Amino acid sequence: MNDGKRQADGYDVGTAVWTYLQQCQICSMEELFRHVPTFTANQLFLTVDRLSREGKIVLRYRNRAEYVMVRTGIADEWPCEMSGAPFEDKL
What we know:
By secondary structure, the protein is α+β, with helices and mostly antiparallel strands. It has four helices and six strands; from the N terminus they run αβααββαβββ. The protein starts with 12 loop residues before the first helix and ends with a strand.
């Protein structure tokens, strides 16, 4: 049973999101939804918001319809462009 915060295997939403971001280093919300399907969209959005406010991730605008998350430790090293779409900081 999902109590709103924990998966059946014991991971909480924060741990699940952070573990995935450590593996991929950069991802969109759509990718996060696909790879961490146990949690609701609201839980994932709130977790991304919290991690951003804590300074653990940086949200970057990838194109007109997509934000991506980049771990803070690599945000400055990450290229300014990915797949031809320039990033713009909106923080």
